[in-house]
Amino acid sequence: MTNAYRSMLCGMLRQSTSGAWAPNLRSFSIVMCVLLSAATPGCDSRPWAHSASPSGPQSTAIPPLRHVVLIKLSDPSDLAACQADARRRIEATKLARRLFIGTPVDIGRTTVDGNYDLALDMAFDSVADYRAYLDHPEHQALVNDWKPKFREMRVFDFGTAAAK
Description:
- By secondary structure, the chain is of the alpha+beta class.
- Helices cover about 40% and strands about 25% of the residues.
- The chain is built from six helices and six strands; from the N terminus they run H-E-E-H-H-E-H-E-E-H-H-E.
- The termini are far apart.
């Protein structure tokens, strides 16, 4: 064992006034956080999710423009097919920097509007990327194929000053 490791391990222990060794939880917690964060890869392993957009360099910053679509299907049995097709086609555009697709979660809060079957949440680096996504053939096909099967669709676009 090297001196550096010995020092680190000894720092995680402290000697009490009785002479017994006890864990120094603060030092242990800090060391474990550093080790785990260094050893843990990012949660999102899809290459397109972290790749540079056509309009700018790669960045780990949160993209400034969000596009959220809430869908109520005419036939709820179409949910799995719609979800899979949306993911495949949105990812194929390689324009959305982040993509989250989910369904309502009921935790008993009366103020939460869960009147939808599927939510699509996308983040874009710029208005130019978002416009390119809207015009992309995969997006157009997604809308043309699925919109007739929607009972309702609500779209929300929002962003920071950097997106304008």
